[in-house]
Amino acid sequence: MEGMLLPRNAWLLVCDGATARIFANEGNADKPRLGLHFAFDEKHDSAHELGTDRPGRLVAPGGGPISATEETDWHAKAEETFLKKVAAALEDAIKGEEARAVLVIAPPKALGFLRDCYGDRTRKALAGEWDKDLTALSPEALAARFAG
């Protein structure tokens, strides 16, 4: 994906399960200049602080053995809720014709979840996806990855 061109006015969504930044390429495809359009940040508490319920128990029909059910991963649920909000905001922006082409960069797990949340407009505007966690990079470092 490095060396890929980012057309002028295309949007770049860089996110993970708690941070999302949407940039617009205000430069040209050969020399991108990323301007921050939106930023979403959500601090997630640790899993034990998000949910403290003990695992449920199941009893087999007929009075068989008791077994525990899998605990809910509250941290993963919080990340999924955050990514749903990001996908909805992206869909709304595309609906409002603020963006016509979007490139999404996210870690594999977040990217897989986002794919399930894309609306029809987002799917049509999607210019590409890159499964990397680049949320810590500055706009200049991100732009350098797309410079021609």
TrEMBL record:
It holds the Pfam family Host_attach. It comes from the Bacteria. InterPro entries: Host_attachment_protein. This is Host attachment protein. It comes from Rhizobium alvei.
